[in-house]
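Kindly go through the following sequence and its backbone structure tokens. Advise at your convenience whether the structure tokens fit the sequence:

___
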Amino acid sequence: MWHIYNPSTKACLSTKLSGWRMACFRFGAIPLIALILSGYLLSGIPNASAQQQTDISEGFAKCKVIADDQTRLNCLKKLLPSADSAAIPAQSSQDRWPLVVTPHPGGGREAVSIMRTADTARSDPDLAGLMIRCQEKPGFEVLLALVRPFPPRAPRDVVINLGSTRPVLHAEVSSLGTGLVLPVEPAIFTTEPWRELRELDVVIKDPEGEIHGVIPLDGLAPAMAELSARCPSG
């Protein structure tokens, strides 16, 4: 079931797919790449006609049931808005970094995160993008979202391209295997040399083959401010 977050009432609705930019998703069997791309699709076309929105919703429904990861990713890519810059209005931070709210299945605290999809033209299909999410205690967790799951809790080295240097971060696979937890705080993007980055260029070292990806970072500061307002304060 799709739920759309209405900022005026702070409630999730399930009647329309337009008018609100923050999506509340129920995570289930749908792979993470499908959720990330669907959030981008819904937030990227606020002025689309009802027929266009219906076509996109139907297209997503067809894509998400495809079993093969690469075929499913190619299907989702075709639903992305046209790259014609003259036809696309300027995007807000909510468009670029959609706020995703996931209700807790047991009725506990909801999970809140922001996501940015990888540049599909410059990234391997196994990398979905970058996620920053609230932790149960005050603080944040920074993850690389994966399409191809890794063994849970397994260590992986991630090489970051900072131009003149390439530091190696010793990351750990999340408990579900669909994310790679980076040992950094989001504040690192405001310090040298990270704050000069316009994009995060990474290489994940994996025995089955390296995964390279590029994730744009524009709009991160206002998106982090919005996320901070939704995270536990103490």
Summary: Helices lie at 32-43, 50-64, 69-77, 93-96, 220-230. The mean pLDDT is 74.
